[in-house]
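In the design runs reported in the main text, the only information available to the sequence generator was the tokenized backbone. The following block is the verbatim input for one such run; it is reproduced so that readers can re-run the procedure and compare outputs position by position.
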């Protein structure tokens, strides 16, 4: 009986060893990439670009899966609940990771506790745009109109509680004006109404608005970052327009559920960063209105933690709170 038991244990150990996941063998099946916003927005564009380019370089099979809702928090929450195997990743950004937890009462996740930072992909300014047929030619025109009729100038955003929404509110506060916020379920819906003139302004990430600006269908009035966007070099910053208190940008990156094996995280990080460092990928990201920036996993994790603390104070000062 003891010999039989010993033989059974040997077989079991052999099977376990044969099926164990190692960095060299990872991945052995498709990797699901959760995108917490609808198709067509900045997060979706960059997530699919990464999935395509890394997939081509490594022969890995990524399956993009859009899970929008509640300012991107539903997709993040789904990723937090996923199995920590490396086969469930999420493209997160400042909006839903470091801002939303302080805004939404229902959000219970903490970024560096419930997720592992893998690779910083890109950062981008936020841009204030209007229809090409709009009466607004400059940001000063918006301020003048809003002061003469508080609450009459409407702006669309990808949703309540996003960095984009708060960037617009920070600008409004700095300019001493009252704008009417119209939240949408993603950038595409807001874009359609901005193009049609149903809202006076749209506030968006540069990747979301760039194609329409270049096509001449939208007019870019200002970017909210400290320096001009390399994709829109002729567009002034909000600070250059007279409101130096406004300096808001956003970042995007890949995350995995907490407790994902470090060796798998490092394997994904190495392959993603290898692709991000290529001139072709740097140019592709820039063509989408963003800027590539390589970081180690530690540097990216530190950025997330730093912004998480910073935006707690910003949200508390704003008094904003969402259900």
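Verbatim output:
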């Amino acid at each position: 009986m003891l010999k039989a038991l010993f033989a059974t244990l040997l077989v079991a150990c052999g099977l376990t060893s044969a099926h164990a996941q190692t960095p060299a063998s990872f991945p052995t099946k498709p990797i699901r990439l959760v995108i917490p916003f609808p198709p067509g927005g900045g997060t979706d564009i960059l997530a699919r670009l990464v999935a395509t380019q890394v997939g081509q370089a490594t022969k890995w099979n990524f399956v993009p899966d859009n899970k929008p809702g509640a300012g991107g928090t539903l997709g993040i929450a789904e990723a937090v609940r996923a199995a920590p195997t490396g086969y469930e990743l999420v493209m997160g950004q400042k909006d839903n990771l470091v801002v939303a937890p302080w805004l939404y009462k229902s959000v219970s996740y903490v970024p560096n506790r419930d997720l592992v930072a893998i690779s910083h992909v890109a950062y981008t300014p936020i841009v204030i745009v209007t229809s090409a047929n709009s009466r607004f030619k400059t940001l000063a025109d918006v301020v003048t109109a809003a002061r003469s009729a508080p609450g009459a100038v409407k702006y669309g955003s990808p949703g309540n509680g996003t960095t984009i929404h708060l960037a617009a509110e920070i600008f409004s506060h700095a300019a001493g004006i009252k704008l009417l916020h119209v939240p949408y379920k993603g950038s595409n819906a807001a874009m359609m109404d901005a193009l049609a003139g149903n809202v006076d302004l749209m506030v968006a990430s540069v990747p979301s608005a760039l194609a329409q600006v270049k096509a001449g269908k939208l007019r870019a009035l200002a970017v909210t970052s400290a320096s001009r966007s390399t994709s829109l070099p002729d567009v002034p910053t909000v600070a250059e327009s007279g409101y130096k208190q406004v300096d808001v940008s956003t970042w995007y990156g890949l995350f995995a559920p907490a407790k994902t094996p470090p060796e798998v995280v490092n394997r994904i990080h190495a392959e993603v960063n290898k692709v991000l460092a290529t001139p072709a990928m740097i140019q592709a990201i820039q063509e989408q209105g963003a800027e590539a920036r390589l970081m180690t996993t530690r540097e990216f994790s530190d950025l997330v933690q730093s912004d998480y603390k910073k935006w707690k104070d910003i949200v508390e000062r704003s008094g904003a709170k969402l259900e």
